[in-house]
Amino acid sequence: MSPARVQLTPRLAAMLAVQERVQVAEPSEPQRPSKSDERGEAELQCDCEAILAHRGVRFRFHMRNARGNMRGVPDELFAYRPRGQSYAIPCAWEYKVKGGRLDPEQEKRIEEMRLDGWHVAVIWSVQQAKEFLDAMETNQENNHGQH
Q: FRET pair for 60, CA 20 to 30 Å: which of 4, 73, 118, 141?
């Protein structure tokens, strides 16, 4: 099954190599890259979701219910399946932009998730999201070679 083709924002298109743009969506004209920390969290999240979709990752963003018991849960929850592996790794991303900070509820929940085996990251840029996923692949390739 091939990954879904997505509409890229101009800023995300400018951050991707030409080959990656062609694989993800319709080709777009190269534009001057802008810094992710100058954008809102919603746009950062949208751009990172495009990267996840391109890599075939199904993701879920959390929703707060009326009682608010989802407070502190990271913005993006997904299971990352490294190439050639039959298992998936639980991952979570909390999006922040320049000046943003984790509140105490978020810090507590993130620490609990890490203790439970989740790979959790605070994502400040699209580049950081790509590096996180690349590291997951590299770590799994290295671990696979040691067995």
A: 141
Q: What pTM did the predictor assign?
A: 0.66
CB 11, CB 39: distance < 8 Å: yes
* CA distance linking residue 43 with residue 95, whole number of Å: 10
User: Which structural domain range is residue 69 located in?
Assistant: 41-146
Helix spans in 9-146 (H): 10-15, 18-24, 41-54, 104-115, 126-146
Q: Is residue 60 part of a domain?
A: yes
8 A C-beta contact, residue 3 and residue 55 = yes
Which 3 state secondary structure label does DSSP give 133? helix
Average pLDDT per 10 consecutive residues for the chain, totaling 147 residues: 52 58 44 47 91 86 58 89 85 90 93 96 95 86 48
The pLDDT value given to residue 96: 92
Residue 74 corresponds to which tokens in the numbers above? 């990271």
Provide the CATH number for the domain around residue 85. Answer: 3.40.1350.10
Sign, CA dihedral 130-45-59-92, equals positive
